[in-house]
Predict the structure.
Amino acid sequence: MSATSLAPIQSTSKPPAILSLIGDTPLVEITRIDTGPCQLFVKLENQNPTGSIKDRVALAMVEAAERDGKLGPGGTIVEATAGNTGLGLALIAGAKGYRIILVIPDKMSQEKIAHVRALGAEVRLTRSDVTRGHPEYYQDVAARLAEEIPGAFYVNQFGNPANPLAHERGTGPEIWEQMRHDVDAVVVGVGSGGTLTGLSRFFSRVRPRRGVEMILADPTGSILYEYVKTGKLVEAGSWAVEGIGEDFIPDIADMSYVTDAFEIDDAESFSTARELLRLEGILGGSSTGTLVAAALRYCRQQTKRKRVVTFVADDGNKYLSKMFNDFWMADQGFGRRPTQGDLSDLISHRYEAGEVITVGPGDTLLTAVKRMRAAGVSQVPVVDENGRAIGILDESDVLVKVHHDPDHFHHEVKTAMTDRLETLSPSAKIKDLLEVFDRGRVAIVMDGNKFLGLITRSDLLSYLRRQMP
Ligand SMILES: Cc1ncc(COP(=O)(O)O)c(C=O)c1O
């Protein structure tokens, strides 16, 4: 029986207890990374139910809409996001029995879309190549949908006062108590500005005279750093860190509270997040890298001991296939390996380093297919017990064998593999590679008898992209 034909599990009308676990997150001190004269603490917002700080604001914005009569029984929640706010809203909509529609730009990862769908959200994909004012701009689509659907409420986290209020009433007081009323600086990122504005309001109230410094951590490419430093609005670039940085100043972001700012590029954000995991055991997302990197720069500039707080704003699990994946990092041009100046530089997975998925000639076709699926590849080299590449097996080789009789999945790889290999030496040229691809094959790179790895079309594309000025 397929999973979808199972009878649904019966539910009661009670909301799930998980909502009571939003907020009250732990605070932990950074002890192994050098923090100069300062003490640095991180608040583990990844421990909220959907793994981010946004659960707090999602709950606050829905409850405020209920109080204001903007959302009632049978109502629909509409928001424009595929990010953490969408996850938080989808959880809360499900818990409270609302319909939820998320308008998502089509560049968002399949994993994120799958995650919000699994929580019960309806997804409307829209174009990601258009900006504010275009009818298909995702925020405009969401606003329009909310007008058209009776009983719909457009959350609009960028302009919703309940967003900063969640931090003013929740996150701020928690930090204040956890730090025993002794905190000198808070390092924040700005997405909607809710965290910055809410915390700033809270701390300026509880510590009006000496104040708590509000430090902005901004990805290189975002306009906010320049705005804080010079008051100028510059043109935005692009950045890969997710959840923070903007190309406009959101309505609820009160930048006047910011006392200093640090600009952190993607490479530093990613390497800091990886170091945080390695040294402190904390698995944070990409923006955590930005925040901790900025906090460390601030800390190391100090001459007196200061007590500093920053955030693990979301969970690193979402980034295992990106920032925590060495192949993705190399493909994006981060943390590149030393180059040889020859074709071997194009090999993304090196055989000698144990990075290549292979099969043996005596493995079954079923084993080979399972291995290809698990690794997300459509072909594997066949390597014998002496480490020699003796063939290559791709999906069409398997199909030829099994399409008449699926029992042939039990046959050995050597009966289906192609043994006419397209081998190239590391000194071959890109032109030679293209000829191999023209014949519909992948290149096997051999240094004499030594198998170095495969080069596919996608490896060549990645290599050429990295050469872009
Ligand atoms: C992943 C992520 N989302 C959101 C935020 C905060 O966003 P906002 O300005 O919307 O409160 C942060 C801040 O650090 C973040 O790292």
